[in-house]
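The authors assume throughout that readers already know how a fold can be written as C-alpha cells. A single example would do more here than another paragraph of explanation. An entry of this sort, consisting of the sequence and the corresponding C-alpha cells, reads as follows:
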Amino acid sequence: MSAGQAQPALAVSTRQAPPPDDTGSPNGYDVNEAFIRKFAGTMDSSATGVETVKHWTPRFEGWQLIPMAGVPIAGLLFVNRFNTVSDTWADCAGILSGLLRTDGGKIVKAADNYHAADHHSTPA
C-alpha cells in the first residue's frame, strides 16, 4: 500500500463489563464490609480534625488589640474583616464536621445492612 491509500478497518474484539447483578457473588452483589467500615472511620477522623481546626481558628480579641492602640482606623477595619473571615470559617468547619459525622453514621448503617443481607441470604 502506498502512503496515500486508506488503510482497511480492522475488527477489534472488546470485552464487555458484566451486568450489575453478575458480579460473581451468589447473592448478586459483592461487598467488602470491612472497607466500608474503614471509610466511615476515616470520615469520623476527618470530622475530628475539622473540629480541631475550628477550635484553633485565630481571632483577634480586645486584649490582643492593646499593642495596636496607635494603629489608624484602617488597621482596625482589617481586624474586623479578619474576625469576620475567622467566624465564617469556624461556622463552615462546624457544618462540615457535622456532615462528616452524620454521613459516616449512614455509611456504618449501610455496612450493617450489607452484613445482614449477606448473613441471611441463601445461595441460589
Observations:
- Residues 73-120 form the longest helix (48 residues).
- The CA atoms of residues 88 and 94 lie 10 Å apart.
